[in-house]
TrEMBL record:
Gene Ontology BP terms: acyl-CoA metabolic process; fatty acid catabolic process
UniProt similarity note: Belongs to the acyl coenzyme A hydrolase family.
Official protein name in the record: Acyl-CoA thioesterase
UniProt-listed PROSITE patterns: HOTDOG_ACOT (PS51770)
Record-linked Pfam families: 4HBT
This protein's UniProt keywords: Hydrolase
Any one GO MF annotation of this record: long-chain fatty acyl-CoA hydrolase activity
Amino acid sequence: MQAKTPEQSKTTMTDMVLPSETNPLNNLFGGELLARMDRAASIAARRHSRRIVVTASVNHVAFNRAVPLGSVVTVEAKLSRAFKTSMEIYIDVWMEDRESGARTKANEAIYTFVAVDETGRPVAVPEVIPETELEKERFDAALRRKQLSLLLAGKIKPSAATELKALFD
């Protein structure tokens, strides 16, 4: 199984915020944005693994800016790291200024997907080879996030969370 770069999984989805997708303040519903991010992350995970993929968890979501009606929204999803059968996907959400066209980062999220076979059993996925500085930062941080998740779930002992311990040494 050949390792892949994050760029090989990159998925970009651009769409406009319509009236039926907004709340009483005329901003994009959070749930609508979550669905857009889930679709983009799913495509990125499938591009990386070339398998059926399922959402395992939504690890982090930050709604930093409201996205107003009529905005052009771009969701960019890339793999940050792959483990045995799971893949962490980092999602950046951008909105364009209607008049200038300038892009502003509005939100971000981190999803985890698992590759499965036709019977729903997890299958191995290729490794990720980060290239840019940002990809390398996200790659390294993904292991810390995974260890923290496993630690909080009681699936590993604190002594096994070596990347987390290194933060405090």
